[in-house]
Amino acid sequence: MGAYILRRLLLMIPTLVGIMAVNFFIIQFAPGGPVERVIAQLQGNDVSATARISGGSSDMAPGAVHDASGGGMDSAGSKYRGAQGLDPEFIKELEAQFGFDKPPVERFLGMLWDYARFDFGESYFRDIRIIDLIAEKMPVSISLGLWMTLISYAVSIPLGIRKAVSDGSTFDVWTSGVIVIAYAIPGFLFAVLLIVLFAGGSFLDLFPLRGLTSENWESLSWPARILDYFWHLALPLAAMVLSAFATTTLLTKNSFLDEIRKQYVVTARSKGLSERKVLYSHVFRNAMLIVVAGFPGAFISSFFAGSLLIETIFSLDGLGLLGFESVINRDYAVVFATLYIFSLMGLLVNLLSDLTYTWIDPRIDFESREV
C-alpha cells in the first residue's frame, strides 16, 4: 500500500502542472486584464469584458498602483485599450508590477516554483496575502459544503436502502417522484422562495439574511453560538440540499438491488440468517463501495461549485463569491492560487477515497494494480 500511495502522490505533480498549464494558456487569450483594469480605473471607466490584452496573465505581481503622473505622451500605439494619453513609461511600470514584462513561459515557471513552496503572494487589488484571503472566506464554504454533504448522505443512504428493500412498492414509487421533482427545482429559485416565505419576504420573518453568524456572536454563550450558527445556515443549506438527495439515493438503491440479487445473498438466506443480518452484514459492505466512490466528487462539488448563487442570495462571503469576483476583477493571482489549492485538495481527497475502499473491504488490493 505504501508504494501505491507514493505512486499516486508522484502522479499528482504532472497532473497539477497540466491543470495549471491549460488554464494559464487559456488566460493568455482572455479579454481584459489587470493592467487594463488599472487603466480603466484611472480613466474613470469600468473594465470592459470585451477588452483585448496581449499581455495575458500574471502569477505573483504586487498589487500597488503608482500614480500616473509624468509625461502625457499619447499612447495611441499601445496594446492596451484605453491607454491613450498615458505615459508609455507608466504603462511599462504597470506591466512590471503585474509581471507582464517577462515572457509567458518564465512567468509560468516562476508561478509553479512559488506554488510548490506554497508561496501564493498577494492579491493584485486587495492588498492582502492570498492565503489569508482564502482562510478568511473558507469558513463559509466549509460550512456549506460539509453540512450539505453530511446531511444529504445521512438522508440518502437510509432512504436508498429502504427503497431497495421495498423495490416496486408504493413507498418506492412516491419517494422516487418526490426525489425527481426536488432534483428538477433549481437551488437558487428555491432559495428565493425560502426568503419570501421565512426571511422577511411576504410572510414570516424567522431567519436572517446575511452572514454566517450574528453581530453579537462573540458575546453569546457556546450553546447560543451553536444555535446562532445553524440559524444562519438553515435556509442556505435547505436550498443547496434540495437537489443533492437524488443522485446518492438512486445510486444507493441500485447498488443494493444489484447486490441483493447475487448468489451469496441467496446462500446466506438459505442458511437461515435474518433479513437484517443479510442486509447489513453481507450486502452493506459490498453495496457501499460505489457510494463511497462518489463521496469525494460530491464533497468537492458541494465545496467549490454551485454555491455562488446561494452565497450571493444569502450574502455569504465564501470561496464561490471570491472566485467569481477575482475573475471579474482580473485578479489572476487569486484565480491561479485558488485553482492550484482546490486542484491539490481534489487529488488528495480522491486518494483518500481509494484508501477508504480498503478500509471498507480489505479484499481490495491497490498494491497489485498498475496505476
What does this structure look like?
- The structure is a single chain.
- By secondary structure, the chain is mainly α.
- It has helices at 2-27, 34-43, 88-98, 104-116, 130-165, 170-184, 187-198, 222-241, 245-260, 263-270, 275-293, 295-304, 308-313, 319-328, 332-360.
- The chain folds into two domains: 26-125, no CATH class; 131-328, MetI-like (MetI-like fold, Orthogonal Bundle), CATH 1.10.3720.
- The chain is 65% helix and 0% strand.
- α1 packs antiparallel against α15 (332-360), α9 (245-260) packs across α11 and α10 packs antiparallel against α11 (275-293).
- It is globular, with a radius of gyration of 26 Å.
- It starts with a helix and ends in an 11-residue tail after the last helix.
Runs with pLDDT <50, length 5+? 47-77
| Total number of beta strands | 0
Number of helices: 15
Largest sheet: none
For the terminal residues, how far apart are their CA atoms?
Answer: 12 Å
How large is the radius of gyration?
Answer: 26 Å
How much of the sequence lies in strands comes to under 5%
Shape descriptor reads globular
Helix content: 55-70%
What is the fold named in CATH at topology level of the largest domain? MetI-like fold
Chain-averaged pLDDT: 78
Could you state the CATH homologous superfamily of the largest domain?
MetI-like
**What's the order of the H and E elements?**
HHHHHHHHHHHHHHH
CATH architectural category of the largest domain:
Orthogonal Bundle
Decide which structural class fits the backbone: mainly alpha
List the domain count as a whole number: 2
The first-level CATH class name of the largest domain: Mainly Alpha
